[in-house]
Amino acid sequence: MGVPFKQGDIVLFQGDSITDAGRVRENPADMGKGYALMTAALFGSSYPEQQVTFLNRGISGNRVKDLQSRWEQDCIALQPSWVSIYIGINDCWRRYDRNEPTSAEQFEEGYRELLVRTKEELGAKLILIEPFVLPVPEDRKLWREDLDPKINVVRELAREFGALLVPLDGIFAQASMLAPSSFWAPDGVHPSPAGHALIAKAWLKAVGAAI
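RESULT FIELD:
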C-alpha cells in the first residue's frame, strides 16, 4: 500500500519546540533542524515524483491554546492538504514549572477545536503525534500523572477524526530499552538527533512511506 499523499500536496507540521527545532522564522520555507526536516528530506528523496511541499510552523513553548490563537494565520491561510500536529508536553510542563496547569478536559476541548476547524475549513487530512516524556531527570516520572491523560486524549481524537496516529510514547519507551533514555532525549522532553530521527521514522511509517 502506497503513501496517501497526492502529487502536489502540502503537508504542514504544527507544534511546539520539538517541531520548531530552531527554524528561521523569517524564512517560510525553513524546516528547522529536527524531525520535520528529516521527514521532509527522507520523503522527498524517496518520492521525488510526488513533489510534496512540506511546511513547518512549530513554535517553541506553545500549548494547545497558543495553536488556537494562531491557527488562522499558521494553518488555515496556508491551505495545507495534510496537517500534522504535535502538541501537549508544554500543557503538562507548565503545571510543574509555573503552576499553570491545563486539565485533560481543557486540553481536549482546545485540541478538538483545532481539528474541527481544520476539517471544516480545509477538508485536510490529519496526522496526530502523541507527546512523550522520558524519566530523565528523575522528576519527569511525576509528570506521568498529568501527561498520560493527555496522551489518551490524542489517541481518542485520532480515532474520532479518522487521523493517522504516531504513537511516540510507546516508541520512545521501547527505544529506551536499547539505549539510555538520555540518549534519546537528554532532558526527557527534547529529542537528541537520534530522537528526532526516531520521530521521523515513526511518522513515515504511520503514513505508509517505504524509506
